[in-house]
Design goal:
Elements: E1 12-16, H1 21-31, E2 38-42, E3 48-52, E4 60-64, H2 71-87, E5 92-97, H3 116-127, E6 131-135, E7 150-153, H4 156-167, E8 172-176, H5 182-191, E9 197-204, E10 212-218, E11 225-233, H6 237-248, E12 253-261, H7 267-272, E13 278-282, E14 296-299, H8 302-313
Parallel strand pairs: 1-4, 4-5, 5-6, 6-7, 8-9, 8-11, 11-12, 12-13, 13-14
Antiparallel strand pairs: 2-3, 9-10
Helix pairs in contact: 1-8, 2-3
C-alpha cells in the first residue's frame, strides 16, 4: 500500500484581543514573533466581528486576551476569536487569560446563585478552546471547571523579587487581608525566608458587595514593614482598611503586592489617601492614565507568560517554572 509521508512541522501563532494588545505585543517580543494581524470591529448594534488576515491551518494558536473593564465585551470577543480559529482549522487553541473573568463567582453562597466561573470555562470549551493558561486564580478549584489542561501561573516570584530588592534588611511581616488569603500568605513567608505571618480578622456582609468590616490584626506587626498580599485589587476597600488597622497596631511601613490591578472606582482615590506607601502590581490588566498614581509600581508579566507559552508549544513542563509549585 502506498502512503504519503509529511514532515511533522509545528507552528506557533500568537493572537490578541483588543482588551490589552500591548501585553500580547510584549509577549511576542520575548518569543520573537508578532501577533497575527486581524480585522476586529463592532457593528452598530454592538455585534463583534473578527477575521484573521493569515492562514491558521494546522497552527498551535495562542489567544491572549486581558479581560478588563467592560468584561462581557471582552469575554464575547474571546469566544468569537476562538471560533474563528477553530473554523480556520487551527490544530490546537490555547486561551491565555492573564486575569480569569468571573473568578470570584466560584461557588454558591446561597440558593439560586450562579457559579459563573464554571460558566466561563464551559463557554471557552464549547467555543473550541483546548487549553487555558492563566495567572493567579482567585481560588485554585477553578482549574477543575475546565474539561482540559489548565496552566496556572504564579506572579509571586516577580512581585517578591521586587519587594526583596526594595526592602532588604528591614524586618518584615507578611499580612493576609482576610482569612481566605492565609494560604497564599504562607507561600509568601516561605518565599521571603520565613518571615512572620499576620492576618486581618474581618467580616463581610454578603448582601453588600465591596463593603468590608475589618476588626483587628492577629500577629506581630509593631515596628515592622507589613506586606499585604492579595490576588487582586478591585475597589481597594479591603486593603486600605487593612492598612489602617496595621498602622494603628504600630506598623512602621505598609506596602501591598497584588497580581491583578482592577482598580474599579474609587480604588485610585482610596489608595492615594491611604496609609499605604507603595502598591506593587503586574500588568495582567491595562492601567489607563487616570488610574495611575505615584505610589503604584507596575511589573511586567509578559516574560513569564512568554516562557509558559514556549513550554506549552514545546510540550515541556510549565510546573518547572515555579520549582514544582502547583
Amino acid at each position: 500500500m502506498g502512503s504519503i509521508v509529511a514532515e511533522n512541522r509545528k507552528s506557533l501563532m500568537l493572537f490578541t484581543g483588543r482588551g490589552f494588545p500591548e501585553l500580547a505585543e510584549a509577549i511576542g517580543e520575548v518569543l520573537g514573533i508578532a501577533p497575527t494581524p486581524a480585522d476586529s470591529y463592532e457593528f452598530s448594534n454592538g455585534e463583534i466581528f473578527v477575521r484573521f488576515k493569515e492562514s491558521v491551518r494546522g497552527s498551535d494558536a495562542f489567544v491572549v486576551q486581558s479581560v478588563t473593564h467592560g468584561v462581557n465585551r471582552w469575554v464575547m470577543e474571546t469566544l468569537i476569536m476562538i471560533d474563528a480559529l477553530k473554523r480556520g482549522s487551527a490544530k490546537r487553541i490555547t486561551v491565555v487569560l492573564p486575569f480569569y473573568p468571573y473568578s470570584r463567582q466560584d461557588k454558591k453562597h446561597r440558593g439560586r446563585e450562579p457559579i459563573s466561573a464554571r460558566l466561563i470555562a464551559d463557554l471557552l470549551r464549547t467555543a473550541g478552546a483546548n487549553r487555558i493558561l492563566t495567572v493567579d486564580l482567585h481560588t485554585a478549584q477553578i482549574q477543575g471547571f475546565f474539561d482540559g489542561p489548565v496552566d496556572h501561573l504564579f506572579a509571586m516570584d516577580i512581585l517578591a523579587g521586587y519587594v526583596e530588592s526594595q526592602f532588604a534588611g528591614r524586618p518584615m511581616t507578611v499580612v493576609a487581608p482576610d482569612s481566605g488569603r492565609v494560604r497564599v500568605a504562607e507561600r509568601w513567608t516561605d518565599r521571603l525566608g520565613g518571615c512572620p505571618l499576620a492576618f486581618i480578622h474581618k467580616t463581610r456582609d454578603p448582601l453588600k458587595p465591596n463593603q468590608v468590616v475589618a476588626n483587628r490584626v492577629v500577629g506581630d506587626v509593631e515596628g515592622r514593614v507589613c506586606l499585604i498580599v492579595d490576588d487582586m485589587i478591585d475597589t481597594g476597600g479591603t486593603i486600605t482598611r487593612a492598612a489602617e488597622i496595621l498602622y494603628e497596631a504600630g506598623a512602621s511601613d505598609i506596602i501591598v503586592a497584588a497580581t491583578h490591578a482592577l482598580l474599579s472606582d474609587p480604588a485610585t482615590e482610596r489608595l492615594k489617601n491611604s496609609r499605604i506607601s507603595e502598591v506593587v502590581v503586574t500588568n495582567t490588566l491595562p492601567l489607563p492614565t487616570e488610574k495611575q498614581l505615584d505610589k503604584l509600581t507596575v511589573l511586567s508579566i509578559a516574560p513569564l507568560l512568554a516562557r509558559a507559552i514556549r513550554e506549552v508549544f514545546d510540550d515541556g513542563s510549565v510546573t518547572t517554572l515555579f520549582g514544582g509549585l502547583s
